[in-house]
Amino acid sequence: MSHADLTFDKLRAQFGDGLQREDNHGHVSILVPTEQIVAAAKLLLTDPELAYTQVVDITAVDWWGRSPRFEVVYQFLSHPNHARFSLRTYAQGDPPTVPSLTSVFPGANWFERETYDMFGVRFEGHPDLRRILMPHNFNDHPLRRDFPLGYEEVAFSHNAHEIHKRKSFTPQGLALAAEAKQQNPDILIGAQSVSDPDYKARWSQPIEPTGGIRQHTGVALEDVATIGPMAEPTPSEDLDDPFSGTMVMNIGPHHPATHGVLRLVTELNGERIVRVMPDIGFLHTGIEKTMESKSYLKALPCTDRTGYASPLHCNMAFSGCIERLLGLDAPPKAQWARVVLLELDRISSHLLCIGSASLDMGASSPFLWAVDDREQVYDIMEFTSGARMMTSFIRPGGLAYDLPQGFDRVVRRYLDYLPSRLDMIEEVLVGNPIFLDRTQNVGVLTKADVLPYNVSGPHARASGIDWDLRRDMPYLIYDQLKFDVPVRTTGDVYARFMIRFAEMRESLKIARQALDGIPAGRWMTADRKVAPPPKEEIAISMESLIHHFKIWTEGFRTPPGQAYFAIESPRGEMGFFMTSDGSAKPYRCHERSGVFASLQAMPLVCKDGLISDLIAIIASWDPILGEIDR
Amino acid sequence: MDLGLLVEWIIKSVVIMGVLLTGFAYETWLERKVVSKMQFRIGPNRAGPFGLLLPLADGIKLIFKEELTPAMADKWVFRIAPIMSMVVALITFAVIPVGPSINLFGRVIPLRLADVNIGLMYVLAVSSLGIYGIVLGGWSSNNKYALLGGMRSAAQLISYELALGLSLMGVVMLTGSLSLVDIVNAQAGNFWNWNIFLQPLGFILYGICGLAETNRAPFDLPEAEQELTAGYHTEYSGMKFALFFMAEYINMVNVSAIASTMFLGGWRAPFGFIPEWTGPIWFFIKVITFLFIYIWLRATVPRLRYDQLMNFGWKVLLPLAIANVIVTAITMALRQVYAPNAVVTVTFGSLLLMIAAVFLWRSWTSRSMRRRPPLHGTSAEGAARTA
Hints:
The complex is a heterodimer.
Chain A: H1 3-15, E1 20-24, E2 27-31, H2 37-46, E3 54-62, E4 70-78, E5 83-91, E6 97-99, H3 109-119, E7 122-124, H4 160-166, H5 171-183, H6 197-204, E8 247-251, E9 263-269, E10 272-279, H7 287-292, H8 296-306, H9 311-326, H10 332-360, H11 364-385, E11 394-395, E12 398-399, H12 407-430, H13 433-439, H14 447-450, H15 458-462, H16 469-472, H17 493-517, H18 535-538, H19 542-553, E13 561-569, E14 572-580, E15 588-592, H20 594-598, H21 602-606, H22 611-621, H23 625-629
Parallel strand pairs in A: 2-5, 6-7
Antiparallel strand pairs in A: 1-2, 3-4, 4-5, 8-9, 9-10, 11-12, 13-14, 14-15
Chain B: H1 3-38, H2 54-64, H3 75-91, E1 101-104, E2 107-110, H4 119-140, H5 144-175, H6 180-186, H7 195-198, H8 200-213, H9 225-228, H10 238-263, H11 279-300, H12 306-338, H13 342-370, H14 378-386
Antiparallel strand pairs in B: 1-2
Helix pairs in contact in B: 1-2, 1-10, 1-11, 2-10, 3-4, 3-10, 4-5, 5-8, 5-12, 8-10, 8-12, 10-11, 12-13
């Protein structure tokens, strides 16, 4: 009996036989009545045999036109049992509401906020249900199926009228729409009918200033609301402390150390940090919405753009999820080659992290050395796929092309070259007492905090969690390779650094083994419904031409169902959750990025540090905003 | 008053300012080149041969840039601050001798602007004033980052100025004069007469404190780019920013020049038989060596944290500087009583102190590794919450 069966039996014993089970190539999910979702999650967590220690992902699917409309999907991961399980439930009522899981899993916080932001599903009992990716004054929920896609034409004087007419949600468009409505009462404009009084009211209101941070006198964060239960604000009015006046400072979104556009609202006492509240979403591009409007193959390049520091991992998670939906395995050659490329990708990502972190701490040389080495990974990628960064090389069913001749030699040269460089960078950093002082015992994330706050990947391993998806829930051919999973116990910035150095060395080992093992054969699946036929066949075979035409215009279809597929990215568990309605486009496509989840835990470790510590902590967290904001 | 003397002063002042300002420009060029070599880059190579015209291009750019003043800034203080930094940086050089006296047009012209008998005191006093520019600039910008930068700067100055002054006192005691000319003359002869051999600890302390004084890495906290965006000069642009920038680099030259004068025999050649007129060349070489070390440090070392910086200043540097003064005093007293070989005694005492310094440094670093400020730490709290 598999662990999923056991879980199902236990849930049925508790909640009755009415539970529906759905299997999708090993991904088991159960539909739970809304009111029982918290109890079910609690059972999954607390039952010693089940021990689902993390809720790794929460998102929703909008079944527009059905009732109930919103299906909320939870992905659970059991570290002791190496198993995944999914719960589903329908959000009831208007506005659609489900109970919040934050009381059981504190790390559900940001996922629930995201779901609220994107779908308008309210989570009852959530301590801090605010928008997270969209601006505060945004008025709709963009991932709903009825939210219009596009309408981003630029209005010039010659076509403004036309464009406003299409943009029914702007004030000008609203006026035009009302005019049209008068002439023809049945007309529907845009996605929403203007007869919706609520809609009109929302847009006719003046946009209020975000009102987040008022003048900094005393406690000022309450408007932005609290950080949530995870970092309970220390009482700023400490009577014993004569210097209790604090200052609120915005670090970011434009700041040299925030690695993009992360905004940290910090409350400072002198230079000491009282509170930190990460504010994300400045790089939100609605990429999930974009993916949902494109066929699978055309959605693939979107994934590169999210995790731009490790684009191949995004490709892999996405392709893996589709392969799971299709019930398809990539051919062996593709699998082995993918491992080589993924490990190179991991090295490049870790080099970026370490380099930019040392720059953040004031050491400029290691940064340039690391970037120099990283550049060579890009060279390999360019040699292999033609693109340096956004390769889109790993595709559903295999690779985009065959590996080029000389791939082996080029990669091997890099693998021989890198170790001494790593030693050099490590020596300059770790051999320096100032660096040790800056990192050791700074930003300690305790082992007890890791799983509840949804931290994964190097961050978790630095805190003593011995967990690596490559070893513990192997995908591709990782189970055939020999490698170690470096673990450290201190959980400080230093540990997160050292983990990355160690992981790069392990990656070198893995890449070498995988390179040795690449078999001959196809690089793309032979399934003509998924893989485009080879070019030379098109000229001589009618079927091939038809397949080619169908795949590049319409795309391939996947059977209806849901799948979640996760890999070990350089920043923790990166997963894709996909719902297919049987068409050629993903009905729902959700990217679960490791650092989005683990960024929740950052306020926890920043407290009582200095600004310099905060900078070191951000750097060690390796936030890639493309992945966080998507 | 002798009109010729007046003309001489004016000419010398102009020369000093000219040399410092061009020197500053080529210092930035040198820094870029050296750092780029250390980082496997090419560095400036577009403007002129070897990028030699880049400082010029930089200057033109900065002069023509728009200068912004924040609406809520304290306008006058905001304007005065960079000027203050700059002026102070320029006038420090007045008392530093760069060579012997030479005969020109029938006049004996000493290669220095002034021989003040309290020259060293003047240097210390003036260089401390430079910090006002930074603090006021940070404060008047009405920007939180700038304010924090200014605050850091003030705290840093207070922590390091004491050790800086004390580290030079050993030399003053040995020479018996505050005049920089006298100090250089006391080091005449061969290179083993230089004060660095009598005061090795003082030399090292001065080197470190000098770094802190000029806000250079690893003590560049006031302008820590990754923490405070640009620190005290966040809101400055155009030529006002350039003045701060110049002041920093000219201060580097000043600190290097003073270190050379105090510890490395100033313009004196390493061997007595080398003719004296080569003095300025030796002085230049010594200053460049110091600058190179500063640049080297910047390319290598991460930045200290604020509290570590203060700890280091107050708990390591200051005690060592005091101890250096005391040991110097004792050995000088012993010399008067027993008249042993003074050089040996002082060197011995200083070497002992150097060993002490190494131990202190090690214990300080290991202690600060183990200990974090004992505040309401997150680790204990986290453990309690999940326990």
